[in-house]
Amino acid sequence: MRIAIASGKGGTGKTTVAVNLALALEDVQLLDCDVEEPNCNLFLGFELEPVEEVNCLVPEIDPDRCTLCRNCASFCKYNALVSLPKKILSFPSLCHGCGGCSLVCPAGAIEEKPEPIGVIKKAPCGSPLTFLCGTLNIGKAMATPVIRSLQNHIDESKPVIIDSPPGTACPVLEVMECADYCVLVTESTPFGFHDFLLALEAAKALNVPVGVVLNRDGLGDSRVEDFCRAEGIPVLLRIPDDRTIARLYSEGIPFVKEMPEWKKKFEHMFGTIKGLACKNTGVQ
Question: Which positions fall inside the 4Fe-4S ferredoxin-type domain (predicted)?
Answer without folding.
Answer: 57-81, 86-115
